[in-house]
Amino acid sequence: MAMRQTPLTCSGHTRPVVDLAFSGITPYGYFLISACKDGKPMLRQGDTGDWIGTFLGHKGAVWGATLNKDATKAATAAADFTAKVWDAVSGDELMTLAHKHIVKTVDFTQDSNYLLTGGQDKLLRIYDLNKPEAEPKEISGHTSGIKKALWCSEDKQILSADDKTVRLWDHATMTEVKSLNFNMSVSSMEYIPEGEILVITYGRSIAFHSAVSLDPIKSFEAPATINSASLHPEKEFLVAGGEDFKLYKYDYNSGEELESYKGHFGPIHCVRFSPDGELYASGSEDGTLRLWQTVVGKTYGLWKCVLPEEDSGELAKPKIGFPETTEEEIEEIATENSDCIYPSAPDVKA
């Protein structure tokens, strides 16, 4: 029975969406944060895309955003030379961490006590969030601006990527353990704790390495330049998106292309699986986020599979039903004088 992929389109941003991250699974579900060049990171319910709030305070493009595991704190990295930490429940700004250049990436430790940052000044910084007045620890060694920095190995090590190099650092000694060099620009990096797998994209390549040793595991070639890739939590599938506006889904074991969808109206900058693996989210140059089902036609979130009457000759297709927020309502809500905006209706469109 043929099923049609029907993504949920989450509008509200006014510039390209350049980064996104999911929280872990909490008693209230899981959550999704997006970073955008409009300087207004947004928090959404992860399984539906419903808009919860917008964090207001940055004075430049936001390049990176993350949530801690239980979705109580958010962190953002911006072109205004700051990283900010937020209360993700109330929307309040908790602290501003001044840098000397554009900040591109932020990541919490598992206990949310430390924040790792990286950016154009080529330095990794570790902030003790319980001592915001203290100077951060700094790690030098990168030769170009840092694009991504992630805690790994239960926060005992750090992974970081600049233009053409991925480096592994020991947290205790603050020294480099090993590095990987590429012949073209690294576009993204994802860390999978279960199995200690590192996903790296560069050019048309999607490469998998051991996060412990940086040894290669396998790699796939895509038909277009890839900007981001994500591995399913059960390591069954991987999804990738890039310059040709399309999302590709591959079998992780065989490398076979299973599906491809063109839903965005611009290059895809970021893609991530949800923590339960039921969906994946993509952010694009077109200013939207889209949510896609891993298994098309499954009843989940706002997707409801409605089977046709027998012998009707119709194909089964997922149905979506939910309220809409108009662009005028979004603009009106966005101008309210609040650190975190809570709309009366979810900002999601089919």
TrEMBL record:
Q: Which family does it belong to?
A: Belongs to the WD repeat STRAP family.
The name of this protein is: Serine-threonine kinase receptor-associated protein
Q: Transferase: is it a keyword of this entry?
A: no
Sorted alphabetically, which Gene3D superfamilies does this protein's record hold? YVTN repeat-like/Quinoprotein amine dehydrogenase
SMART domains given for it? WD40
Q: Which GO terms describe its molecular function?
A: mRNA binding; signaling receptor binding; U2 snRNP binding
Q: Which UniProt keywords apply?
A: mRNA processing, mRNA splicing, Repeat, WD repeat
Q: Which organism is it from?
A: Chlorocebus sabaeus
Q: Where are the WD repeats?
A: 55-96, 96-137, 139-179, 261-293
**What's a Pfam family in this record?**
WD40
Q: Which GO terms describe its cellular component?
A: cytosol; nucleus; SMN complex
Lineage top rank: taxon: Eukaryota
Q: Which PANTHER family match?
A: EUKARYOTIC TRANSLATION INITIATION FACTOR 3 SUBUNIT I, SERINE-THREONINE KINASE RECEPTOR-ASSOCIATED PROTEIN
GO BP terms: alternative mRNA splicing, via spliceosome; maintenance of gastrointestinal epithelium; negative regulation of transcription by RNA polymerase II; negative regulation of transforming growth factor beta receptor signaling pathway; neuron differentiation; retinoic acid catabolic process; retinoic acid receptor signaling pathway; spliceosomal snRNP assembly
Alphabetized InterPro entries for the sequence:
WD40/YVTN_repeat-like_dom_sf (IPR015943), WD40_PAC1 (IPR020472), WD40_repeat_dom_sf (IPR036322), WD40_rpt (IPR001680)
